[in-house]
Amino acid sequence: MTGSNQTDQEVKFTDSLHVEWAKGRAHMMRWKEEFLLVQEEMRHVIEYLNWRAAWWYEWSSLRTHADATVSSGISGYTNKQAAICSWIAEQCAQYWLPRLGSKGITPSWASHFLTVLNLPLVVPPSSNVDNEAEVDLEVAEEDEMYLDDDGDEDFDSDD
Asked: I need a surface site. Which of 53, 94, 112, 157 has the fewest CB within 10 A?
């Protein structure tokens, strides 16, 4: 079927296939971008929390007071805040890394936390760190990735 041999119905059908293909490709590309953005947001959260912990430690050393009791209180408060920020960063990594690893994803920020938290590094032989070269997503696999056996979204598998 070429050029003038196609009927109007065949042309409309071919055009609708092209439109559906373009929509599907655009959808896939949005998911690839979202896939990378979520990993970047995870990295950003952990980097911010680590920066904030360092900021609290630095702030503690910059504050001086003539009264030893006040200095001790400031030091205790800032050290507690720094420890909280560090703990939250570790908890995020502890929650995210096993889930990412089970999908064959090893983000660049993972190396520090894998050793600190004693988590195993799960990297399939064909995967790249951060999956920068090519993100292989298929809509059907992606939908199954986030659903448990009864079809509900399962974001916390620890329950």
From this structure: 157
The model's pTM = 0.57
- Identity of the amino acid at 66: A
**3 state DSSP class of 147:** strand
Check: CB of residue 153 under 8 Å from CB of residue 147.
yes
Q: What are phi and psi of 153, to 5 degrees?
A: -65, 135
**Is 32's pLDDT higher than 50?**
yes
63 and 77 Cβ atoms separated by less than 8 Å: no
3-class DSSP state for residue 96?
helix
For 115-150, the pLDDT digits (tens) are: 666 655 544 444 444 443 333 333 334 444 433 444
Domains of the chain, by residue range, sit at 8-145
CB of 104 closer than 8 Å to CB of 122: yes
> What is the secondary structure of 9-34 as a DSSP string?
HHHHHHHHHHHHHHHHHHHHHHHHHH
